[in-house]
Design goal:
The chain is mainly alpha-helical. The protein is 60% helix and 5% strand. It has one domain (3-170). The chain has helices spanning 3-23, 27-30, 40-48, 56-64, 68-74, 101-119, 127-135, 143-159, 161-170, and strands at 85-88, 93-96. Helix 1 (3-23) packs across helix 6. It is globular and about 40 Å long.
C-alpha cells in the first residue's frame, strides 16, 4: 500500500496529459482527464496495488485475473478505446466503434504521458509505439481508430514530439 506514491503518480500523470492536450489543441478537455481516478473505487484500489513502474491495475489483475478498478475506469473515460464498443444488430455481436477524433487525440496524449511517467529517465519517443504494437494482435478496437493511433505513435517515434503535436493540433477528421 502506498497512498502518497499513488497520489503523486496520478497527479503527475494528469499534469503531463494536460500539457500534452494543450499542445494537441484540446487543453480544455485535458483539464478533466482521468478524474475518475480520484473516485474511492479506483483510488483505493490504486493505493492497494501501487507498483510505481506500471499501472496498479496490473497488480490487481495479477491477483484476481481482472481489475475492477480498470472496469470502472474504462467505462467512464471516453479516451479509452475499450469504452467504444456496442452491440451491432447487423453483425449480431458486440463490435468496436470508431472513436471521435477529440478522444483519439486525448488517448495519444494519455499514452505518451503514461510512458513518460513509468519509463522516467529511460523514456524514448519510441516507447509508446512499441507498447501499442505489443498489444495490437489482441486489441478490440475499430480499425480506423487503431490505424490513426498507430500512425500518430509512429510519427512520434520517427519525427519527435514537436512535429507530431503540430500535426495533431491541425488534424480535423480521420
Amino acid at each position: 500500500m502506498n497512498f502518497f506514491g499513488h497520489l503523486r503518480t496520478v497527479c503527475r500523470h494528469r499534469r503531463m496529459v494536460f500539457k500534452h492536450c494543450k499542445k494537441a489543441g484540446i487543453g480544455f478537455q485535458g483539464m478533466f482527464h482521468d478524474l475518475s481516478k480520484f473516485s474511492p473505487f479506483e483510488f483505493f484500489a490504486g493505493v492497494k496495488y501501487y507498483l510505481g513502474t506500471k499501472s496498479p491495475n496490473e497488480g490487481q489483475r495479477e491477483k484476481f485475473g481482472y481489475s475492477s478498478a480498470w472496469l470502472h475506469h474504462k467505462g467512464r473515460n471516453k479516451h479509452h478505446f475499450e469504452y467504444w464498443s456496442d452491440y451491432s444488430k447487423i453483425a449480431g455481436k458486440v463490435v468496436p466503434v470508431k472513436m471521435p477524433l477529440k478522444y483519439v487525440k486525448e488517448m495519444f496524449c494519455d499514452r505518451v504521458a503514461a510512458s513518460k511517467i513509468y519509463q522516467g529517465k529511460n523514456y524514448k519517443d519510441s516507447h509508446p509505439y512499441e507498447y501499442f504494437m505489443r498489444g495490437k494482435p489482441n486489441r478490440f478496437i475499430h480499425e480506423e481508430t487503431s490505424n490513426l493511433l498507430e500512425n500518430l505513435l509512429l510519427m512520434l517515434k520517427e519525427k519527435g514530439e514537436k512535429e507530431t503535436f503540430c500535426y495533431i493540433k491541425e488534424l480535423k477528421e480521420y
